[in-house]
Amino acid sequence: QSVWGYDSDNGPERWHENYPMAKGEKQSPIEINSKDVQHDSSLAPWHASYDPGAAKSILNNGRTCRVVFDDTFDRSVLRGGPLTGAYRLRQLHLHWGSSDDHGSEHVIDGVKYAAELHMVHWNPKHGNFAGALKQPDGVAVVGIFLKVGKTPKPEMKRILEEIDNIKTKGKEAPFQHFDPSILFPKSRDYWTYHGSFTTPPCEECITWILLREPIEVSSDQMAKLRSLSKNGENEPVNPLVDNWRPPQPVKGRIVRASFK
Ligand SMILES: NS(=O)(=O)c1ccc(S(=O)(=O)NCc2cccs2)s1
Ligand SMILES: [Zn+2]
C-alpha cells in the first residue's frame, strides 16, 4: 500500500481510502470568495509572541520543508483573533507549485499564489499535540500567502539559505535563533474559518487564520524551494513540487473577515 503523497497513485483524490476524514464535512483548504465572507467586528486582533530560542531544526520530510520549534512549554505562543487562550507554536512548513502561477492551497477570489506558508500551533489545554488533534479547538494554523514580486522579503532568505543542507528526504539541519514573526506582512487583516489538516489524517481540528496581505518572494527564491527533492539521497531524483491539496467543499461553513 503506497504511503500518501501528491502523485496520481497516492494523491488527494485517493487519501480517503486510508484516511476517511478526507471526505469529512469541514475539510481544508477551501476557496474563499469575498462576496460570501462575513465581516465580524467582534473579531479581536491576533498576537504572536515567539521566542527566537525556541527554533530547533529544519527538515525535508519528503513532502515539505518544515522548521520545528520547542513546544514543551508556553515559549512561543499565538493569542487573540478567534482564539481563546494561548496556542503553542510547533512547526512551520510550506506548500508550493511547479511554477509561479500556482502552489497555494487556499484560493482567494480565484487567485492561486505561488506558495502558502503554515505556522502550526496547538492548544495546551488538551495536554499534548496528539490530544489536541482530536479536539475542534485543538489546533490553530496561521496561513501566509507568498507572491512572486520585485521586492522579495529578506526574512525568507534565512529559510531558503538552509535548503542546500536538506536537499533530500530525511535530511535535517540545525535551525536556531529564528523568530518566524518576521515573516508576517504589515497588515494583520485575516479571514478565519474552521477546517482540517490539508494532509492526512485530515483531522477537523483547525481554526484557520489566513492573512489577507501576501508576502513577496523572488522567482529565484521559488526556484530554490523547487530544488528540494522528494527522494532520499541515493534514489532517483523526484522534485518536491506541487505539494498542495486542492480546495475542498465549503459545505455551508461561514468564513469571517476581521476587516471590511
Ligand atoms: N497543512 S496543515 O497546516 O494543515 C498541516 C498538515 C499536517 C500537519 S502536522 O504535521 O502538524 N500534524 C499532522 C498530524 C496528525 C497526526 C499525526 S501528525 S499541519
Ligand atoms: Zn500546511
Polypeptide structure, described:
- This protein is mainly β and 260 residues long.
- 7% of the residues lie in helices and 28% in strands.
- It is built from three helices and 15 strands.
- It has helices at 129-132, 156-162, 219-225, and strands at residues 31-32, 38-39, 46-49, 55-60, 65-69, 77-80, 87-96, 107-108, 115-122, 139-148, 172-174, 190-195, 206-211, 215-217, 256-257.
- The strands form two sheets. Strands 2, 3, 4, 5, 6, 7, 9, 10, 11, 12, 13, 14 and 15 form a 13-stranded mixed beta sheet that branches. Strands 1-8 form a two-stranded parallel ribbon.
- It starts with 30 loop residues before the first strand and ends with a strand.
- The structure holds N-(2-thienylmethyl)-2,5-thiophenedisulfonamide (TPD) and zinc ion (ZN).
- Zinc ion (ZN) is lined by residues 93, 95, 118, 198.
How many whole angstroms does the radius of gyration measure? 17 Å
Count of helical regions: 3
Helix content: under 10%
Derived from helix and strand composition plus strand pairing, the structural class reads: mainly beta
| Major sheet size, sense and barrel closure | 13 strands, mixed
> How many β-strand stretches?
15
Strand content: 25-35%
- Oligomeric description of these chains: single chain
The overall average pLDDT, rounded, is 97
